[in-house]
Write a structure and sequence with these properties.
The complex is a heterodimer of chains A (177) and B (313). Chain A has 177 residues and is of the alpha+beta class. Chain A has a single domain, classed as Alpha-Beta Plaits. Chain A contains six helices and ten strands. The radius of gyration of chain A is 16 Å and the shape is globular. Chain B is mainly α and 313 residues long. Classes of the chains: A alpha+beta (177), B mainly alpha (313). The interface between A and B is large, with 50 and 48 residues. Strand 2 of chain A pairs antiparallel with strand 1 of chain B, so a sheet runs across the interface.
Amino acid sequence: MRYAMAVDTLRCVGCSDCVVACQTENDVPIGHCRDWIVEKTTGTYPELQLEIRSERCNHCANAPCVRTCPTEASHYAEGGIVLVEESECIGCKACITSCPYDARFIHPEGYVDKCTFCIHRVEKGQNPACVSVCPTHAMIFGDLDDPNSDISRAMATRKWKSLIPEAGTDPKVFYLI
Amino acid sequence: MIEEIITSGRMNPEIDPILHVWGWEIPFYLFLGGISAGILIFSAYFTLRGRQDELPVAVKWMPLAVPFLIGIGLIALLMDLSHVLYFWQLFTNIRWESPMSWGAWTLGIIMPLSIAWIATWIEDIFPKWEWKFDEIKTVIDWLKNYRRYMAQILILLSVILGMYTGILLSAFNARPFWNTSILGPLFLTSGLSASAALVSFFSKSEVEKRLFTRIDIILIGIELFMIVHLFMGHLAGTQVHIQAAQMFLGGAFTVPFWVFVVGLGLLLPVVLEILELKHKFIPAIVPVVLIVAGNLMLRFIVVNAGQASRWLY
């Protein structure tokens, strides 16, 4: 089991539904977000290219946050999902500084918080909240070890990239381009 | 030229737009840790060389400050923790891959060991000292027989402590400016240099003063050499490392670093120390204040610059 997510940059319109769904589903404190929209414009007017991405924790297979955590609060759960156990987190922020994607933040209660791939929904066979609300069906979630899963098929038939793989993190969120 | 505009909807406090999760506490703690390591290394080394009576300040007096310095450092560290009531989790886990973890363990061992180390010298420092309980006196007298072993362990742990203050940062490859292994040796050398300057300031013996001034001059030389290497390494690195170095070569950190850390914190005091050795009159307080202030500033600038440097995607 290797959970992963693919975001279709050709379908994403940057509506932020995924952001709001996540905040509602996970009771994310106001003023914080576990996922967010990035718009990248390349070129000089009028020759422009636009890429819209819904970003979140990349649930890296070689996660620097898990490596630098002094208490094992940051850990790999089933299927490679990277989680923070709040009762073990001391708030030293080593994981925050070690994340090249800046995907983590300090919860107002003091522990470090981030995307969980909605593990509570995934365990019931549901999709993460962001994936299930996406109005353009731009997001695919699934198991990379299953060659017939939607995500495996999308990765096999489409061109894709991941974010700064050169940082050695082996990210598990992919962008279809 | 291709222009790129990246607009992000993320605005998490202390993360965006520029990461700033570590304020004054961490650099201050690294500074105190570095000086403590330096003091203990000199004290233990010159004990092993059998020069404790010739160099009393370095061997016997300076370690008195260590438990206080480490204590204040630990308070600063605890103040930085945002989930501080769970800090004991540090000592129910050993994570070899996490510098934060082995740093906590090293401090946890070095703190009682440094107190025991002082206890073996306390009767030399204060001749009228009397232990209140005979049991303590028996234990301390027994410990004195094992001073050599204590010194060897202290040197090992102090080198780890001094290096760790830099490695803590260089272990984060997400922050290109920190991501260079030279930070460990650089912070160790700078901690040694500050403690050598403090020894030569507090010492009343001409032999000790001159020896530690000479040691300090060599250490500052090594530090300057490592700073050059730090930038050579970054400039020969990837785009993100080049950009990280450019923050110091024309960017926001240029003046604070080259004027205050390198100019006033290293070059000026080294010139003053050389003049001192040539028997020119230099007020003793001037080089030591410059060196200690430069030491502190170096850690503040490195911690802030690291947080300001990032990968681009």
